[in-house]
Design a protein that fits this description.
3-stranded antiparallel sheet; 4-stranded mixed sheet; 43% helix; 22 helices; single chain; disordered N terminus; 577 residues; alpha/beta; globular
């Protein structure tokens, strides 16, 4: 782990957040009328969190972690503000951890979600993951592991009630160097010693690691920061209401990547996995009542409503969305763009702008309601806003509506209208519309496949910098080399989407060895396809030495992502199952 004045400092920091509210307080309450410090008040509600930070390790046996306690203090305030009841444990030895878990388990008995956040050293041994108490030694014997270190899996089992949603954040170094030495393990004879923190097995919930396997977790970024880049991003993005947990993970990961790109031990790439059946929010989306016009009977998709008036949002006031250009809309991933917009404008403000006739706000709000980003999911309401945006000939609204039409059991009339919308938005120069139209033309959605027209549209979108279009052009022999170079430039600029498409392109061309490092970067960044390709590579020994454990690791992470394509699920079928 990197630290000021030290070449590299291991900072094994587990962050396990079990989505719920922390209960009780450690230490007796004072007689003062002042409110108790964060993490010390009696726990109330059905969402609780246990925050554990170990900083004060002795420097001759363990690298100290200056910011671990600062991290949990910062996260505590953010959780409290979000309506999550937190409990804090600082610099705890084994006895203090055991006592804290016993108390927390009693307080969390009725919780519907539980969050565990640990910042400190940690490792894997014997198929289980362990956090390092303040009094733990750097070496031990096999028989003493359970006495000296705390099993994260056992902690989860103790404190999470049956049926509760479990959210675990792990902020710890996961470098290959052993954190703890198991003295009586003979690795020369093939016995497994300690290893970097591995995958945690949980039921209903998710795990969010601050860094990828084999990589350090930085204690600060930039140099001198009082908190880790992971904790800073967790808190920053928690200020955006209504991000479903999967979208929240994405924006936190991108923020950490941006903060650490270009640093000596960077970039740091958080990643997540898990399984949950219903949308889960750390901060619930606001309830925004629909206007009367939005609650009536719906027209069929093929019948757009009349254009709304734009007078309500015009006049002397400046346009609050003026900084969002069509070029940006045309190439940036929607979840990241929406998160950026919501960090500056509350959802209610965007809805008000949309109701007033702002075409960009209508497109943004339509997307938000269609997928439940920043607001409660409401596809019917999404359609109304997208119809209004498209009726004003706004290219992004036309493209988003066309997509919605094709995704909702379209009639022949809806398919024709989607084609017209895509063509209109494409003719207006909107890159995403060109890419979408090109794909549908190749797929034969609108008639016989038209590869020549498709390639021309991809080329136009690629000129504007749309990564998916650049990738598509690698399938055409006459444009492959130039567009592989474009993707390489994206990757070298710090955009892991470039690495992902390089991984996909070389896999498709059976030249995976040339991009195996790109697959690793993109897999660590959370791209489902790259995770599946990397699992296949380790299973088959393609471009990398065969390693069944690594294959199983990446296959599990890939399967946990709902966006994994059917063909990629088939690619990794049987790996680790």
């Amino acid at each position: 782990m990197a630290r000021v004045g030290v070449a590299m400092v291991k900072r094994m920091r587990l962050v396990a957040i079990l989505a719920a509210i922390l209960t009780g307080c450690f230490g007796a309450p004072t007689a003062s009328a002042q409110a108790p410090a964060c993490g010390e008040a009696p726990l109330q509600g059905d969402r609780v969190a246990l925050l554990i930070g170990n900083s004060a390790y002795n420097d001759w046996e363990w690298p100290s972690l200056k910011n671990a306690v600062n991290d949990i203090d910062l996260v505590c305030e953010a959780f409290k503000k979000a309506g999550i009841a937190p409990r804090i444990v600082r610099n705890a030895d084994m006895a203090a951890l055991e006592a804290a878990l016993t108390r927390f388990a009693a307080e969390a008995a009725g919780a519907k979600s539980v969050i565990l956040y640990y910042a400190g050293h940690g490792f894997e041994y014997g198929g289980r993951n362990w956090l390092v108490p303040m009094d733990a030694p750097p070496a031990t014997r096999r028989a003493d592991v359970e006495k000296r270190y705390l099993s994260i899996e056992a902690a989860v089992e103790r404190v999470v009630p049956d049926g509760a949603f479990t959210l675990i954040f792990v902020d710890a170094c996961r470098t290959a160097e052993p954190v703890v030495r198991i003295a009586d393990v003979d690795t020369a004879r093939g016995e497994a010693g300690s290893a970097p923190l591995g995958l945690l097995d949980i039921a209903q919930g998710a795990v969010f690691y601050s860094t990828a396997k084999g990589r350090p977790a930085l204690d600060f970024a930039p140099v001198g920061s009082p908190v880790s880049p992971f904790a800073a991003a967790v808190v920053k993005e928690l200020a955006i209401p209504g991000l479903e947990i999967g979208d929240y993970f994405k924006v936190v990961s991108r923020e950490v990547y941006k903060r650490t790109h270009g640093m000596e031990l960077g970039p740091q790439q958080p990643f997540h996995y898990g399984s949950w059946f219903e949308d889960y929010y750390l901060v619930e989306p606001p309830e925004i009542p629909a206007r009367a016009m939005s609650t009536g009977a719906f027209r069929p998709f093929s019948a757009p409503p009349p254009p709304p008036s734009t007078a309500a949002i015009r006049g002397s006031t400046a346009d609050p969305l003026a900084d969002i250009s069509l070029d940006r809309l045309g190439i940036e991933d929607e979840p990241l763009l929406i998160a950026d917009v919501l960090s500056r404008h509350p959802a209610a403000k965007l809805v008000a702008l949309a109701d007033g006739g702002h075409p960009l706000a209508q497109q943004l709000v339509g997307y938000m309601f269609s997928l439940g980003v920043g607001v409660k999911k409401d596809v019917a309401r999404a359609r109304i806003y997208l119809e209004q945006s498209a009726a004003q000939a706004f290219p992004a609204g036309q493209q988003e509506l066309a997509y919605l039409l094709l995704e909702n059991d379209p009639s022949p009339a809806d398919v024709r209208r989607a084609y017209e919308l895509y063509v209109a938005a494409s003719n207006a120069g909107f890159s995403k519309a060109k890419t979408h139209l090109a794909y549908q033309l190749t797929a034969g959605t609108f008639g016989p496949p038209d590869f020549a027209r498709s390639q021309a549209l991809y080329a136009e979108a690629a000129e504007k910098g749309h990564p998916a279009a650049i990738f598509a052009l690698t399938f055409f022999p006459d444009t492959r080399a130039a567009n592989l170079a474009r993707l390489r430039a994206l990757a070298e600029a710090g955009n892991p989407e470039g690495n992902h498409w390089l991984c996909e392109a070389h896999f498709a061309d059976r030249t995976l060895a040339a991009a195996i490092e790109d697959c690793g970067v993109a897999a660590r960044a959370g791209f489902a396809g790259s995770r599946a390709i990397l699992a296949h590579a380790y299973a088959s020994g393609t471009g990398v030495a065969a390693d069944p454990r690594e294959a199983t690791h990446w296959a599990k992470l890939a399967r946990d992502l709902p966006e994994l394509r059917k063909d990629q699920r088939e690619l990794i079928a049987g790996i680790g199952e």
